[in-house]
Amino acid sequence: MLKDYLLLHTENGNLIVHMTMKYLSELLPENLFMRVHRSYLVNQSHITIIGKSQIQLNDIEVPIGEHYKEMLLQKKSSL
User: Considering its fold, how many domains does the chain have in total?
Assistant: First the structure.
């Protein structure tokens, strides 16, 4: 098991980094990135559709955790 390894999808390709999700979320600008699931941290500007249990990021579907859904809806409605 790869503990504390993250797969980052970027415009320039994919990277594997050794750090916790919590640490990465503290490094990234809070106004641009948010946690939407225990396994997913996303750039809010790439969200195209918010569904009941998932979001669409350009052409990728990502699940929304129940814990994060209300916060996501509040942030998106304030934009």
Answer: 1
